[in-house]
TrEMBL record:
Identification of the protein by name: Primosomal replication protein N
Listed Pfam families: PriC (PF07445)
InterPro entries in the cross-refs: PriC (IPR010890), PriC_sf (IPR038338)
Lineage of the organism: Bacteria, Pseudomonadati, Pseudomonadota, Gammaproteobacteria, Vibrionales
Length: 175
């Protein structure tokens, strides 16, 4: 993905965050403390932090620093996209949301689950090799928390699909 495509993705994310902030009641957002420095009840400040990190990409002569900003940016972007996707499915389903869309979202969440399982295994391996570092243990816990949130979203999607399938089947029975 090139810079222009990422910028377009950020613009879309900004618009979705604005829409979320207008419609949602203020509440603490479930982002890892190590993932975002921002603490807010609104989503837009998190998108601003993401955009700030995007602006930092490639502006350092230090390749390790560039790698840090790139990894942080990707993790933050995925977290915000997952959060918005899961909120779309926890709110009452709109009649326009088709079973196909729900199944596609479920497939995406299962892919994220697979990647998060792999991340947890990698973090556990690193932590077991490096037992003196508390930071490694914290990274394992954070990865497991992300995996749990992903699994909760999968469960909610499966429930929504089951409800809609039951409703559709019930409608067909009486027609």
């Amino acid at each position: 993905m090139n810079r222009a495509q990422l910028q377009a993705k950020l613009s879309t994310l900004h618009a979705n965050a604005e829409r979320y902030d207008r419609s949602a009641k203020p509440a603490a957002l479930p982002f890892d403390e190590q993932l975002f420095f921002t603490r807010s009840e609104k989503l837009l400040p998190y998108v601003k932090e993401l955009n700030d990190n995007f602006q930092q990409l490639g502006h350092s002569a230090n390749s390790e620093r560039n790698d840090y900003f790139a990894e942080r940016f990707v993790n933050q972007l995925q977290a915000l996209e997952r959060f918005l996707a899961s909120r779309e499915h926890t709110q009452p389903s709109s009649p326009t949301q088709s079973l196909l869309e729900l199944r596609e979202s479920l497939a995406q969440h299962r892919e994220w689950e697979r990647k998060l399982c792999e991340l947890v295994r990698n973090k556990e391996n690193l932590a077991s090799q490096n037992q003196q570092h508390l930071e490694s243990a914290n990274e394992v816990v954070i990865a497991q928390q992300r995996l749990n949130r992903c699994r909760n979203a999968i469960y909610q999607l499966e429930e929504t699909i089951a409800q809609q399938e039951g409703f559709v089947r019930g409608q067909q029975k009486y027609q």
